[in-house]
Amino acid sequence: MNYNQNLYTKAMKKPILFVQLFWWLSFLWFFIGPINYLKKYNGGLLELCIYIVLYYVAFGLGYGYGYTKVRTLNETPKKDNKDSIISFLTITVWINLIFTFLNALQYSYTTSISGLIGNFIAALTDPGVAYFEKILTMQSVSTSYSVLTYITVFLAPVLFPTQILSAYYFKDMTLAQKIAIISTFLLEIFRWTSVGTNKGLMDIAVLFGSVFFFKYLKSKMSNERKVEKKSGKYLAIAIVSIVAFICVFGYFLSSRSTSYPMEYFQQFPYSLVPEGLRSSVYKITSYLCQGFQSMRIIIGTGLEWKPTYGIGNSTFLLSIFYRLTGIRLSAITYQTRVVETGLVASGAFQSVYSYFANDLSFPGVTVLMFVAGKFFCRLFKETLVDDDPVSMTLLYMMILACLNASCLNYMLSFSNMCVGFWSLVIIRLLKKRIRFSFIKIKIKR
């Protein structure tokens, strides 16, 4: 496909504008939203604002610096990866289907398809009940299926690319493969809905939103009128995917508890919010902004920085470190110590910045944000222009991390995402010396 340099320049600006707009609006909502966080704690506000501004600006500067390295399109396009990707998916869509099915049975606490569908239907009417039942039985189920969990985590570097690539190249698959892909996503929806949990549903919504956003940008870059005409359709599907999830997200959160502090909705303009939506608005606000408040309290209480040596950014890595050494490094993290002050509830959301501050300190996170912005830019270029499958998967995971930056370290806290992300980062680095075709591997001389 031929791309226009001017259109490419415009397309490369859209991702950073989207991320920055979302971040700044989320931080603004912390100040003007219905939950009055400013009155809940005195101190740390100025420092919080300084750090957040530094982080957002550093990410933008990193993206801009990365763009200076890829601003000009190569006259000779790279080899098309499509055939090798299709060959890869020919096998992995079936592996993904099998493990999705087994994990769906595990997470919904059943042993049959009929039981899974029954749990799904029951959870649609009251996801709150399904969520609390999951919490009560989680320990026994996780013990029984530990082998399946380990295998799924081990296969994460294969399963994650399969998910997004199968959606991106869906039209190029055979009928049997299309049925397998559709069945996989339906099972994922049944799996997470049946336990009243938003995480997997968010992954699916962002996956489809990302796929069609990529297609939208690629179509806008094209010189071919036929391809460019599809851009509106792609953008519409991306927006519908995200809006649909936001509706489900609010419904699931509000179903866990319909109560909310009445005083938050007594003043204009929040007094105009319909009674039936107030619980959802309150829960979504808490999800987006609670991490800022926790970070503010960490700074305001003057907790001393105790380095965790590259492990403290991930609850998964902390748990692995404890199993291997018997040292509970999590005890010195900001997340644990701020809860011990009694000012932050156990289980409260903590921003990704606080997690990485365990390793780097809050000033040090600024450098990380610059590097992340540069990395984000390179992934977008390699996805849009080169159709690189590894970069596309990493970009999807980075988008998930950006959307959840204010409330948790979404990408590295979960075992399968942490293993999948770092494995794919290593593969991407190795590709500078090794040419991967998914079927054949050749060492570059």
Write a short abstract of this structure:
The protein has 445 residues and is mainly α. The chain has 18 helices and two strands.
Question: Which short descriptors sum up this protein?
Answer:
single chain, 445 residues, mainly alpha, 2 strands, 1% strand, globular, disordered C terminus
Fold topology:
Elements lengths: L4 H28 L12 H26 L11 H26 L5 H13 L1 H18 L1 H9 L1 H13 L6 H19 L5 H23 L3 H4 L2 H26 L18 H26 L14 H11 L8 H7 L11 H9 L1 H23 L4 H15 L11 H16 L3 E3 L4 E3 L2
Antiparallel strand pairs: 1-2
Helix pairs in contact: 1-2, 1-9, 1-12, 2-16, 3-7, 3-8, 4-5, 5-11, 7-9, 7-17, 7-18, 8-9, 9-11, 11-12, 15-16, 16-17, 17-18
Structure description:
- A hairpin with a 4-residue loop joins strand 1 and strand 2 (441-443).
- This protein starts with a helix and ends with a strand.
- The protein has a two-stranded antiparallel ribbon.
- It is mostly helical and 445 residues long.
- 39% of the residues are buried.
- The protein has helices at 5-32, 45-70, 82-107, 113-125, 127-144, 146-154, 156-168, 175-193, 199-221, 225-228, 231-256, 275-300, 315-325, 334-340, 352-360, 362-384, 389-403, 415-430, and strands spanning 434-436, 441-443.
